[in-house]
């Protein structure tokens, strides 16, 4: 049995240690950031996550008074990048951008990952995205009805590219073929950009992509938009029908992009990053770029770390059910 005097001494030591740690953390956060910050993007340059990351990072850097350097780490549907981010020092100098694919679906598809949802601290949601199915410009079907009829007449012969198993683009593909009731071959790439390049070159039949990265190619008639998984038409693609208008209301593809830090990052640092993210998405520069990309900034009440955590928790369960057959043992 520990004497009362010893207990009081131990308690005092613990309190002093906690106070010292808290003061040190507060001082660190007050001076943060003192050097450039790395933002890890889980896909190749040019894709949706990359474009959004670069747009937001530039303005966040201005708000923080430091440059935010983009590091593209492609592979395994984003899990290679997330593994790298989870091992980073939790000091606020390494953060990552993720989505429902990289930060939710991946736990079902790759059940033996070296990280879990608890390996990350949410910072803020920074964008809401809309999924599109686009076809090579010489594909024989002219609309969604013709495409589904063609796919059913040619099971397994249509190739749709995506940014890798577990990516948000993969989820767009899965949602689409499930809603359409078709058998299509889903081809994974190390990012959305190389998949789109092959669709433009007619190496594959089409892509499952976000409006942020495919809209320009559709407008330039390099590929042909088939349908957008949204409840309203996009301003940048006014002629592209919504899933309901095209006769496939069950196809829903509205996603999110958020920023995450390694577990253990001080709350005061998270607060600084959150404030910078809020400032960034509220700037005219980001609003204009997002508008050009058919991407939407979060509402004022959607910037909190708590809201992003809720999205992750919801989507982990959602895709555990949807992707059970894709789990790799």
TrEMBL record:
Q: Which UniProt keywords apply?
A: Receptor, Signal
Q: Which InterPro entries match?
A: BUG, Bug_dom1
What's the domain of life for this entry?
Bacteria
* Signal peptide (UniProt feature, chain positions): 1-29
User: Which protein family is it in?
Assistant: Belongs to the UPF0065 (bug) family.
Listed PANTHER family = BLR1237 PROTEIN (PTHR42928:SF5), TRICARBOXYLATE-BINDING PROTEIN (PTHR42928)
**Name listed for the protein in its UniProt record:** Tripartite-type tricarboxylate transporter receptor subunit TctC
What is the species listed in this Swiss-Prot or TrEMBL entry? Bradyrhizobium huanghuaihaiense
């Amino acid at each position: 049995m520990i004497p009362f005097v010893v207990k009081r001494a131990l308690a005092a030591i613990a309190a002093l240690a906690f106070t010292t740690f808290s003061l040190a953390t507060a001082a660190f956060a007050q001076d943060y950031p003192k050097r450039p910050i790395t933002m890890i993007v889980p896909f190749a340059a040019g894709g949706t996550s990359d474009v959004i990351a670069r747009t937001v990072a530039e303005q966040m850097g201005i708000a923080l008074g430091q440059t935010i350097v983009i590091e593209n780490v492609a592979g395994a549907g984003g899990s290679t990048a997330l593994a790298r981010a989870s091992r980073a020092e939790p000091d606020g100098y390494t953060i990552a951008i993720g989505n429902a694919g990289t930060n939710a679906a991946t736990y079902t598809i790759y059940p033996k990952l070296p990280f879990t949802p608890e390996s990350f601290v949410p910072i803020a949601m920074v964008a809401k995205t809309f999924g599109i199915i686009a076809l090579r410009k010489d594909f024989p079907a002219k609309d969604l009805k013709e495409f589904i009829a063609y796919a059913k007449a040619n099971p397994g012969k249509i190739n749709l590219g995506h940014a890798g198993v577990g990516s948000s683009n993969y989820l767009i593909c899965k949602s689409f073929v499930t809603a359409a009731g078709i058998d299509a071959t889903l081809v994974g790439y190390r990012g959305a950009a190389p998949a789109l390049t092959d669709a433009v070159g007619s190496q594959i039949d089409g892509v499952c992509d976000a409006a942020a990265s495919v809209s320009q190619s559709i407008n330039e008639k390099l590929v042909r938009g088939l349908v957008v998984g949204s409840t309203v038409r996009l301003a940048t693609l006014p002629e592209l029908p919504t899933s309901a208008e095209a006769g496939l209301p069950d196809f829903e593809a509205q996603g999110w992009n958020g920023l995450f830090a390694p577990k253990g990052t001080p709350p005061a640092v998270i607060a600084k990053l959150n404030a910078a993210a809020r400032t960034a998405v509220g700037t005219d520069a980001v609003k204009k770029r997002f508008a050009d990309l058919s991407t939407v900034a979060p509402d004022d009440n959607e910037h909190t770390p708590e809201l992003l955590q809720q999205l992750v928790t919801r989507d982990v369960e959602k895709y555990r059910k949807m992707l059970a057959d894709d789990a790799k043992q």
